[in-house]
Amino acid sequence: MRRHPIKNAIGFVALCIVTAFVASRTISAGEETAVDNGDDSQFQVVHDEASGISQIILPATENEVAWSDVLRGLARAGHLDDAALRDILPAGKIDLDSVGAQLTIMAINVALSPEIEMSVVPAKDDRKVAALLVTLDKSEIRKTRRKVKARIRDAIGDDEKVRDRENLGLRLEDDWEKRDASERTVIVLHGFNSDSEGVSGLATAASVTNLPMGTYDYANDQPIAESAKALSQDLKKLAAEHPNRRIALLAHSMGSLVAREVLENPTLDPGNVNELIMIAPPTHGSQLARISFGVDLWEHFLGSSEGGPVKRFYRAVEDGLAEADNDLRPGSDFLKTLNGRERNKDVEYSIFLGTGGLITDEELELVRNSVDKAAKESRAVQLIRPLFDDMLSDLDEVLMDKGDGVVAVKRGRLEGVEDTVVMKFSHLGPTNDKVTKNDRALYAEIVKRLED
Question: Which CATH number fits domain 9-25+169-451: 3.30.70.1230, 3.30.720.120, 3.40.50.1820, 3.40.50.10490?
Fold first, then answer.
């Protein structure tokens, strides 16, 4: 398994944040309906969370709208500080009544619709002049990003990735079917940017129960729902061939979401799973999913010596384009759908959440101060400053006693699961072979539930 060699926690977080926001972010998921009027702006930005639509309303002055205001509006719709752009934006205006303007708007709509559309709206209510309306569809933008990311991944994918895909699926230990049918079979699921080898620590811990064991590998660069469909197919096949066998799923991190999608989606439930043990599940997402590119750059390019620099950079980019990070963001469509379902009444749930975060509140405040200083010295940092502030205002994932370094305790809890235990362990600690006292305490609790 690839692991993050974190030697300087503050530097790590700063690197992740910088690379992430340079690399991605369109419209924020999870925004409440709001109207944003800049102090000196003549336009409005309206976010409607229910529909996933953002609108920029640019009232005309003498029937004209400045192109600079259009670009500033787009920046503000993306939660950027448009003040950083004011003296570098192009000049020029669009006359809303002109034939040229109508043709321009038509051309833009042909090129960018349905993600972005423009239209001229007449005066209405308290707006006494016509306006240019720019509509951004967050759902359509995400679909386009997925397609673009998939094409880039395909273009830069290497032979190692192809070999990895050939090893996906369910693997059970030799002669497992000869074991007593009354014994549950334990299947271990890995998390984001990992594989079955990467959770060998959990598998070893569970093996002391002497129950039949297995692992499941799924692709890292696809939506969680696709991984769940693949797992469901394998479990349904297992149920058909061994109808009396019961399954216990032991899932780490994102693997917990894959498992829940299988068990709580009636069309996917194989009916042979009666226990789900989740270690550090990002039930309500992880803020670090918003900076996954930064994590992967640190991991492959700065924290690895395998391969040349170009190959390592390509691997960082490819993993940073993984589809699953969209699903893992707090407020994502996937998480809303998943958490809106009922728990499976035939499954016994357990959750273990860790508090072995890397950073203190004081250290995180140093990061905030660094952002303040950088914003004063760099136009680029000033532009994305609102994104920094939004993230740094709630980063419990990395804080000691509030998260395990990746998942915040408050975002790991799941309604309806009474067996939720908070313990002192880090996110990756229980998955590897470097067992600590905290890991052993967690293992003992896992074994207790498997043997119950």
Answer: 3.40.50.1820
